[in-house]
Amino acid sequence: MKKVTLIKGDGIGPEISEAVLKIIEASGAQIDWDIQTAGADLIETEGSPLPQRVLDSVKKNGVALKSPVTTPIGKGFRSVNVQLRKDLDLYANLRPCYNLPNVKTRYENVDIVVVRENTEDLYAGIERQIDEDSAESIKIITRKASLRIAEFAFDYAVKNNRKEVAVVTKANICKLSDGLFLNCAREIAQKYPQINFREVLVDNCCMQLVQNPNQFDVLLLPNLYGDIVSDLCAGLIGGLGIAQGANIGLDYAVFEPVHGSAPDIAGQDKANPTAMLMSAIEMLNYIGEREAGTKIRKALFATLEAGIKTADLGGDYSCSDFTNAIISRL
Ligand code: NAI
Questions:
Q1: Computed from CA positions of residues 167, 172, 173, 178, in that sequence, does the dihedral angle turn out positive or negative?
Q2: First to last CA, the chain
Q3: Centre of ligand 1 from the C-alpha of residue 185, in Å
């Protein structure tokens, strides 16, 4: 039986984790869960929001399913999510984004894959208060990280029959940092003549995505633009409640939804577990439990097709009733 780490997180994390565990169990997938907690609550008892035991567990099992963890805004400890990605060198953040059945949005046939560099850029966390009225943050872009994420995006495009990779930067302004990222993408693009290569500035990219998202295929972005643009892409298909994601490195993979801990609806049985479930389906595929993954996807789609939806999608089902509706279709 395959051992997988489950990081329960906080906010809506425990609710959606519970929902996904129940669905996976009902699917018959053979998983021995190694359940780990992370987040602010642990600072008092264990001295850190990301105790070493969590990292050790992912290192031992090689794969994890993670629900969101709150990061204090404008103060406090460093993001557990950023730390985890950095400590495990999960350099590629993969966020496929496509319309789900019976989820009405302004756009049809959206099918975009966001490939976000996951280890550097402004997320390096190098910040300094210069004086009371000024602060600076350092944006780190390296050739090594840029080349490997570009290679990941093109390799993904080839393996998944995609036609185009668009590199998204602000290289007209950040000439050195984004310029380096762009040049690395150009270099890798040469090795993949079968994939169309396109260069877009991030501001224009946002406008184009809102006007005509169907023109895009695979997007390749540095960390911060990737974060922002992937939330934008989630908005194109019905919101954060359905946007899946994965953090992938050479040795480990951590699957998690795009969304955060949604403190505004936490503990109210209102959260949509779909984003976490879709991330879990990719995790099941990754560990070779493809049959269970396909079964769950079919049950999820049939549930949505029957008009059973949580509040974020305009429905009136609670998280637990939506979960039970999926299980009854498995
Ligand atoms: P958020 O993604 O938690 O919420 C944004 C909006 O989307 C809220 O209105 C929320 O209710 C809604 N939403 C999100 N997920 C939903 C779901 N599954 N079902 C229904 N509605 C959902 O973003 P926000 O509020 O900016 O961040 C809250 C906290 O989460 C912050 O501390 C942030 O740092 C953290 N965060 C953690 C992430 C992670 O663990 N990977 C990723 C993003 C944010």
A1: positive
A2: 21
A3: 31
Ligand 1 neighbours by CB, cut-off 6 Å: 12, 68-71, 81, 240-241, 256, 259-265, 271-272, 275, 312
Full pLDDT tens readout for the chain, 330 residues: 899 999 999 999 999 999 999 999 999 999 999 999 998 888 889 988 899 999 999 999 999 999 999 988 888 888 889 999 999 999 999 999 999 999 999 999 999 999 999 999 999 889 999 999 999 999 999 999 999 999 999 999 999 999 999 999 999 999 999 999 999 999 999 999 999 999 999 999 999 999 999 999 999 999 999 999 999 999 999 999 999 999 999 999 999 999 999 999 999 999 999 999 999 999 999 999 999 999 999 999 999 999 999 999 999 999 999 999 999 999
Distance of CA 328 from the midpoint of ligand 1 (Å):
28
CATH 3.40.718.10 residue window(s) in the chain = 1-96+240-330, 106-236
Q: Which atom of ligand 1 is closest in space to residue 239's alpha carbon?
A: 7
pTM (two decimals): 0.96
Taking Cα atoms as reference points, which of 65, 82, 95 lies closest to residue 121? 82
Counting from 1 in the atom list of ligand 1, the atom nearest the Cα of 274 is: 18
Paired tokens of 156: 């993904």
The answer to whether residues 229 and 205 touch, using CB atoms and an 8 Å cutoff, is yes
For residue 2, list its beta bridge partners: 31
Q: What's the CATH fold of domain 1-96+240-330?
A: Isopropylmalate Dehydrogenase (3.40.718)
Q: Residue of the nearest CA to atom 12 in ligand 1?
A: 262
Q: In the CATH hierarchy, which fold is given to the domain comprising 106-236? A: Isopropylmalate Dehydrogenase (3.40.718)
Atom of ligand 1 nearest to the CA of 68: 40
